[in-house]
Amino acid sequence: MKLITELKPKDKLGKLPKDESTLEFGKLFTDHMFIMKYSESKAKEKDKGWYEPKIQPYGPLTLDPAAIVFHYSQEVFEGLKAYRWKNGEIYLFRPMKNLERMTTSGERLVMPPFDKEFVLNSLKELVKIEKEWVPHAPMTSLYIRPTYIGTQAKLGVQPSSDYLLYIILSPVGAYYASGFSPVKILVEEQYVRAAPGGVGFTKAGGNYAASLLAGKKAHDKGYTQVLWLDAAEKKYIEEVGTMNMFFVIDGKIVTPPLTGSILPGVTRDSVLSMARDWGMKVEERLIKIDEVITASENGTLNEAFGSGTAAVVTPVGELCYKDRCMVINGGKVGKVTQKLYDALVGIQYGQTKDPYGWMIKVC
Ligand SMILES: Cc1ncc(COP(=O)(O)O)c(C=O)c1O
Fold first, then answer.
1. Which residues contact 62 (CB under 8 A, 6 or more apart)?
2. What is the CA(307)–ligand 1 centre distance, in A?
């Protein structure tokens, strides 16, 4: 396939705000997007059904109101970032991990595979074209949102015969308005996010729609997000709204295993790699909420934090469950959380060596 490029006239291009500290998460979009189409009727051809890959001006999509995505949520997405280094160069963080996860998510929703190398090269091309949009201020970045939807106009629950895969870009500041400071999380008792055998391990939009009510109720009560428990017994820790969850208990880092109901976070994987390399004790295992409460009571709950592309490494200062709140590490950022945050941010912004080869240069 050959990537087609149709750019906006120079005098129509938008700009980053002068004051980059005003950037909010996901509100502003760049001038161009990548888009490519799929049709089952072309699937026997050499590009396996994918055609017309294009970088074009950002703008609305025209879809039939009967499009499958609107009715049966055949949609998956991704989130990754491009970072501007001090020397002006621009890098992506482990982009292939996101494209692999998008393929896995798509497979679960019966969506056809795509050429990941081709999409990565197109993404690099798009970011190169939009390089002026990658912000400069500390902790800002260009958030990248690949999206994959079923577009066939047909009612009836079945996989779509046609798809669009597109990528949009948004210059962003910190995900949480509070920046790198401890957040307050509510352990959700009533609602669940994902059940065994379901789609919890995918980044399907439907997972997030199902989480909105619990999130809103928690937000209205002053919490940043909810911590989900397992669907079957409501005893085991799963993950937070948009972060994987870690505890430091008696000096050991513990995090729930990837059993199919939580998202296999790219940041989670990175945190685990770094911690193991530093010789820290790390356990991926089931964690009962009762174990966390006991550890809090007997003084062995040292720290808690979440990890995610948008949230980076976010300390949890307070965890509330059934009318009681555990204040963790005096509500302050813990040593392990700080060390992981510094190391990750150091690699992402090119301030420290990247021994893992995680950073992929765009330009
Ligand atoms: C439900 C959920 N869990 C975990 C994460 C963290 O994943 P990653 O580190 O790949 O961003 C996210 C990211 O958005 C998420 O939505």
1. none
2. 7
